[in-house]
């Protein structure tokens, strides 16, 4: 990771950002917390495998939420974001 502690590089963010589908909120905005921004979520997602940190330990690191990060990972995995990212890198 290029930036500071747990920060993905601008270059990596710029390659992944177009692959992330737009989020469609299912709840009225007043009923829940504000959604973690995409960059912060990606920082946490890439931090976990690069450090062998467990999802449930993320809160203690200050990198991200131990609830939001794995949820966002699953959303992106299910949407094929990581598969398309690796295909683009290989091709």
TrEMBL record:
Organism superkingdom: Bacteria
Chain spans, region Disordered: 1-31
Domain Insertion element IS402-like intervals: 8-86
InterPro entries membership: IS402-like_dom (IPR025161)
Record protein name field: Insertion element IS402-like domain-containing protein
Protein species of origin: Erwinia tracheiphila
């Amino acid at each position: 990771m290029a930036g500071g502690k747990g920060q993905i590089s601008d270059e990596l963010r710029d390659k992944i950002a177009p692959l992330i589908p737009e989020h469609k909120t299912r709840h009225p905005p007043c009923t829940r917390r504000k959604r973690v921004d995409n960059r912060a979520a990606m920082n946490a997602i890439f931090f976990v495998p690069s450090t062998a940190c467990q999802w449930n330990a993320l809160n203690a690191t200050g990198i991200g939420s131990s609830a939001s990060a794995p949820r966002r990972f699953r959303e992106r995995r299910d949407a094929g974001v990581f598969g398309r990212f690796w295909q683009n890198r290989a091709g």
